[in-house]
Amino acid sequence: MATSSFWVSFSRILVGLYLVFVFLEPKFLAAAGFNKNWVEPDNIDPDNDGQYQVLTHDSDDPFADGSISTAGDGDGGRYEVCGTDLSFLGPPYGNISTSKMVCSPIWNTFILRYYQRGDNVMTIILSAVYTTGWVGIGFSSNGMMVGSSAMVGWFDRKGHARVKQYYLQGDDESQVIPDKGELPLNNIPPVVVLHGAMIYLAFQAKFDHRLGRQPIILAFGCRYPTHLHLTKHDDKTAIWFDFSQASVLDIDMSQKKNHAMLGVIGWGLLLPAGAIIARYLKHKDPLWYYLHAGIQFLGFILGLGAVLLGIQLHRSMDADIPAHRAIGIFVLVLSILQIMAFFLRPDKDSKYRRYWNWYHHWFGRIALFFGALNIILGIEIANAGNECKIGYGFLLAITLVAVIVLEGLSCMRRRDKSSLSPTFQMNPI
């Protein structure tokens, strides 16, 4: 039976785990963010490829103070913004009737207009309040920056218009490649225009099918691009837009934070701690057993919650992240087998106990390994930034150091025990 000292020790451990959770929580809440930087473009067109159209820039336009206000507040504001005559864009973008063009304020001062023809050719016009720098819209398969293709427009210091497609191949600036991408642009040149205090970025693309629910990345940077490499964004967001209904999908992004938090606390902290207790504190019987069972069960509950939230996020966002999802389900299956092992544990004297020990130990180790791997993969997929990577790296390093130290002490203890001479010796006959 558990003594009162056991419950005191158990309470102290729970308080310690709570304090660790409070300390680490802010780091891992960032795992749901889109924290990667984009790139930079240029004052000239060195490749002279005609990928942009130079238009007149009116230097007297009143956009000096850079103030930002939310677009489309209320029906009156929406009508005023979406009722703007677009003839200044020129054909074919300015020839489309405003009655045919779908218009929706989507983020900050960004307004999205589009018209989708029967042959799946879509005309897209993005507008936003502009001072300096660049604005961009990216199309992604999973809502993440890496792997997406973006159209970016800006005006250089001389007032020349620039617009390029970029392929966001990786995290580094060198991996954001100009004049590449998977957007199926047609032969109509894209256009960027300044009109009043707004910048308008217009292009056409012919898709294989009519667009429905689509992850979109929006960003802007206030510094001028140089040499076709975008400067760091000043703000960015990712939304899921339904082109069939002209609406931003109402996805609770706090679910991503909760998914990350539950996964890290469950699989990155509690379950490794429970395994360490089972291996190195068996001389504290029965304390080690109660601690191991209680912590592992709590870790399993948190891990299960992370998986359920992940499934819900996959359904609502339609995100294409098969590796992360498959590993998560695999780890969940292993953890369920471990829970079953708890109820099917044979007696110590049973001849099957040795096989049960082998199964319980190795399935647990495999689950912990893939759990840590999936946390790292999730952090990378979420583009969570260096703070989150350093935070989990610090937690992982502490766990590994603790295992190494405890393993060394355990080996020394076993060696000392084996070297002790018996207390009583029998004289040889």
From TrEMBL:
The chain crosses the membrane at residues 6-24, 121-139, 260-281, 288-311, 323-344, 365-384, 390-409. Keywords: Electron transport, Membrane, Signal, Transmembrane, Transmembrane helix, Transport. Residues 108-221 form the DOMON domain. Residues 225-415 form the Cytochrome b561 domain. It is found in: Membrane. Pfam families: Cytochrom_B561, DOMON. It comes from the Eukaryota. The keyword Transmembrane applies. The keyword Glycoprotein does not apply. GO terms for cellular component: membrane. InterPro entries: Cyt_b561/ferric_Rdtase_TM (IPR006593), DOH_DOMON (IPR045266), DOMON_domain (IPR005018). PANTHER family: CYTOCHROME B561 AND DOMON DOMAIN-CONTAINING PROTEIN, OS01G0680900 PROTEIN. This is Cytochrome b561 and DOMON domain-containing protein At3g61750-like.
